[in-house]
Amino acid sequence: MPRDLHLLPRMEDRWSFLYVEHCRIEQEGKSISVFEASGRTLVPCAMLSMLMLGPGSSITHAAVRALAESGCLIVWCGEEGVRVYATGLGHTRSARNILRQAAAWANPKTRLMVVRRMYEMRFDEPVEASVSLRQLRGREGKRVQAAYAAASAATGVEWKGRNYDRRSWSRADAVNRALSCANSCLYGLCHAAIVAAGYSPAIGFIHTGKALSFVYDVADLYKTETAIPVAFLVASEGHTDLEGRVRRAMRDVFLERRLLERVLPDIEALFRDLPGVVEEVEGGQMWDGEDEAPGWLWDPEQGVVAGGAAYTEEADGGDDPGTRTRKPPGRADPLDAGAESGGVRGKSESGGASEALE
Question: Which residues pair with 234 in a beta bridge?
C-alpha cells in the first residue's frame, strides 16, 4: 500500500546520516537490521535521512524498498564515505521545486539573482548591486582562506594549502584527509536534503557541469562553520581513526548547528519571488495528489490541463486541449470546480464513449 508522505517525519526531525561498512542489511518491520561482526543493530527507517553504504556492505531488496518508502536516501560510497558512487531517491514525488529551480537556472537574470543571494548568505550581509560576479568570487576566496587561517591558528595545525590526490589518498597530510572526509559528510547531508525536497542536485548556479553542482552550491553555504573547523580540530587530536572521528564530529556539529532545519528554508529562500518563476498554480493541485496519478498535461494557452483523460475534438472540428471525455477510473476529478472552469461534466455510458464537453 502506498505510503502517505505527509505522515512521515519532517526532514529536520530526522537523524542526519548513518555510515556502515562490512555488514548485511535486512528489513525488519518498519525498520532495518544491520548485521555486523559485533552483533545486530535495529534502525527505524523513518527517522533516518541518509544511509551511507561503504565497502563490504550488502542490502536486501526488501530493505531498499522500506528505506525508499520512508524517504531515506541511500548512498553507495567509498571507504570512510569520501566518494559517492550512486544514490537512491528522496521522499518527494512532486515536480514543483525542480521546475522552479530549472526556470531560475534557464534565465540568466534570475540565475544571477540566485548566485548573488548565495553569496549574501555566505557573507552574511547584503551585496551591493555594483559588485561584479568576478569581485564576488574574489571576496569568497579571501573568506575561505581566512577560515583556513583561523582554524589553523586555533588548533595549532600547520596549513600548507588544499592538496590531495584521489589516486593516492594516504599521501595527503592529516588535515587535508580530514577536510575531504568532512566535506563528503556535508555534501551527503545537503544531497539528501536536496533530493528529499524534490530539487535536482545537478542544476547548479555557481558550480556547473557536474552531477552534484547544486550540492556543492548549497554545501558552500555552511562549509566554513562546519567542515573546516571540524577537520582542523580532529586533525589536531591525532591521526588514529581520523576519518571515523571526523564523521562522528560532523554528525555532532550537524546536530548542534541544527543544520537540517536550516538547509531547506535556505534553499527555498534562494528561489523566492524571482521574476518569471511560477511559485504555484491556482488551487495548488498541480503539485499534489497520489503517486500513481498521471499528473497534468502542459498547454500553452491554459497552462495545465488534467492528465489521464481521453480528449476529443469539438463538434466544429477545432482542437480544444481542454476538452475531456471522461475522468480516469478511481481518480478524483481535479476540475470538479465545475462552474469555475465553465464546463459541464460529460456522462459516460456503459461500454460507450462519453459526450464531449461544450
Answer: none
**Cβ-based burial of 280 (10 A; exposed 0-12, middle 13-18, buried ≥19):** exposed
The CA distance from 282 to 52, in Å, is 39
Determine the Cα–Cα distance for residues 67 and 17; give it in Å rounded to an integer: 13
Cα 200 from Cα 215, distance rounded (Å) = 9
**CA nearest 106: which of 341, 280, 254, 276?**
276
Q: What is the DSSP string of 30-44?
A: TEEEEEETTEEEEEE
Instruction: Provide the edge-to-edge strand list for the sheet that holds 57-59.
Output: 39-44, 31-36, 23-28, 57-59
Pairing of strands 31-36, 23-28: antiparallel
With CA atoms as reference, report the closest residue to 79 among 173, 218, 180.
Answer: 180
Predicted confidence at residue 258, as pLDDT, reads 85
Give the amino acid at 142. K
Q: Are 328 and 294 in contact (CB under 8 A)?
A: yes
Other C-beta atoms closer than 10 Å to the C-beta of 114 total 20
Strand locations in 48-129, DSSP E? 50-53, 57-59, 73-77, 84-87
Q: Distance between CA 204 and CA 212 in Å, rounded? A: 8
Q: How confident is the model at residue 267 (pLDDT cuts 50, 70, 90)?
A: very high
- What are the grid coordinates assigned to 330, written together? 478511481
Domains of the chain listed by start with CATH number: 5-87 (3.100.10.20), 96-270 (1.20.120.920), 295-358 (no CATH)
Taking CA atoms, 232 is separated from 101, 121, 262, 297, in Å, by 35, 23, 24, 52
| Beta carbons within 8 Å of 308's beta carbon, 6+ residues apart | 293, 294, 295, 327, 328, 331
Measure the CA–CA gap between 347 and 325, rounded to whole angstroms. Answer: 8
Q: What pLDDT, in 10s, does the model give residues 203-253?
A: 999 999 999 999 999 999 999 999 999 999 999 999 899 988 998 899 889
The packing angle between helices 133-155 and 227-236, to 10°, is 20
